[in-house]
């Protein structure tokens, strides 16, 4: 009986280890919904149908990187204030924002027309990494959070399984998402070197 119990517990440990590995592949989303970061309501919400063919990577440049939930929450509020009040947009421009706390902050969300990449706002997920990533690579927890979000979207059939991943600079003249981060995403699955750069001032919005 004692031996059986010991065997059972050894088996349980092995099973838990296997499940642990499996859990890593299907990570829980470290997700922060709008109410949690005290977002202002959007002025209006326009939806578009999925599955979404493009994932577009951004950096904020400003605000600078944040590393705690409290600081990232403040950064989210600052970005939304800038986009809604100074720029006059309906809402924060991005679909999602990733903080240096490793968490995924809900921006407009999936299938909501964004304001982050002209001509692609109604066919992309705009994911922004808080900080200036021209020289420094974002920490591993931020890169992992982006991948977790994309994997989740694909698994839920919200993002097309054959999605194309690009940086903001491939759609308009900008240094975004920063040289170092841009170099990094070129190594990611589904990255496309396509260039479709148009000056947004030359096209109707
Ligand atoms: C992805 O698959 C869809 C549906 O089959 C197709 O229309 C589209 O052209 C594909 N896109 C890419 C980038 O291969």
TrEMBL record:
It holds the Pfam family Amidase_2. The keyword Cytoplasm does not apply. Belongs to the N-acetylmuramoyl-L-alanine amidase 2 family. SUPFAM superfamilies: N-acetylmuramoyl-L-alanine amidase-like. Residues 29-172 form the Peptidoglycan recognition protein family domain. The lineage of its organism: Eukaryota, Metazoa, Ecdysozoa, Arthropoda, Hexapoda. GO terms for molecular function: N-acetylmuramoyl-L-alanine amidase activity; peptidoglycan binding; zinc ion binding. Residues 40-178 form the N-acetylmuramoyl-L-alanine amidase domain. Residues 1-27 form the signal peptide. Disulfide bonds join 66-72. It comes from Culex quinquefasciatus (Southern house mosquito). This is Peptidoglycan-recognition protein. InterPro entries: Amidase/PGRP_sf, Amidase_domain, Peptidoglycan_recognition, PGRP, PGRP_domain_met/bac. Keywords: Disulfide bond, Immunity, Innate immunity, Signal. GO terms for biological process: innate immune response; peptidoglycan catabolic process.
